[in-house]
Description:
CATH class of the largest domain: Alpha Beta
Distance between the termini: 57 Å
Organism: Lysinibacillus irui
Radius of gyration: 30 Å
CATH topology of the largest domain: Rossmann fold
Main location: cytoplasm
Family: Belongs to the AfsR/DnrI/RedD regulatory family.
Oligomer: single chain
CATH architecture of the largest domain: 3-Layer(aba) Sandwich
Pfam families: BTAD, Response_reg
Largest sheet: 5 strands, parallel
Strand order of the largest sheet: 2-1-3-4-5
CATH superfamily of the largest domain: Response regulator
Strand content: 5-15%
Number of strands: 12
Domain Response regulatory: 3-117
Amino acid sequence: MIRAVLIDNEPLALHYFQNKLHAFQQIQVIQTFTSVEKFLNELPNIEFDVMFLEIKLQELSGLEVADIIKTERPQVSVIFITSYHEFALQAYEIGGLDYLLKPISHTRLEKSIARIEHEFSIQQMLQQATQTVLNVQCFDQFAVYSNNSLVAFKTEKTKELFAYFILHPNIPIHRDNLIDILWPDLDYVRAKSNLHTALSYLRKTLNTIGYDNCIVFSNKYYVFEKPNIVCDLYDFQKLHEEFSRLEFPSISLIHQCLSIYKNGLFVFDDYEWSTAYKDRLTKSYIELLEKGFQLTIFSDTEKAIEFLHALLDYDPYNEQKLEHYLYTLIQAGLHEQAHKIFQAYKQKLKEDLALTPSPSLLEISKKLIVYNK
Length: 373
């Protein structure tokens, strides 16, 4: 949503223009002013992305107001609305994005709104570029990027230490706990020295890419004060929290979560301390697949079977869950698909473990044979 402020001495003109903006859902008029003085008094308390203002105002001219805004808030777009064509050159010289002559047609206003949207998207990207430098990848292989370049850590333990901090942001961690986790086989004195060395390397690396003082030490505790970074794990957690709150989450939300999860946390990094964290994420992954299966079984058979195959690939020998999935398929009238799933499982069990399905599964298979006749 693009937040807009309107300024015009004429209340009727202001009301008329505000009504015209109602046709554009992407624009939200947050405040209107008929007085420049009142606007300037309110300025410290309001946040907006675009300002529409008349050239001819009483206390100051629209050009003077625009000059103030472009000086204090250069990211704000300024659109002039006026009956006077002779000020257009000056308006553009001080950074005006557009100059609209009254009466303003809907077509002309559409073009102006398109310009505003384009400028807004540029400002959003610039803001993100200045605020976000570090990109941390936790799923599949742990990797850290700064401005799209891979960050090289001095040692593997330095990298592992950072991975631990990423998984435990804003949490006080006792120095001895870090020692036990990262150097369990070393004597205390040597392990403590290694910790200090790894911390020194990590701080230097982070300082080099613009993240000063984000690791704080106090009374034997370290805290990684999470800076503004992009991290796939944090994105997954945020989306999964939304998923957990909803009784009927959208399939697109489920797919977003699954696309981030990929093959799991730290797949190519042997960090023993991350096992419990991996298990929690695996549980979340299975929840997503099962919910996706439940939501699509009656509406989109193809997608439902995709979710089911992913579940079976992950836990191929869990007969209790397989029974549940088969019954769900039967209830949905998908007897042929259920039969194929059972036959594939039976073949896999024979080839991999030289076993046969349980009696309860065989009983289900008999029902499927009857259904498919």
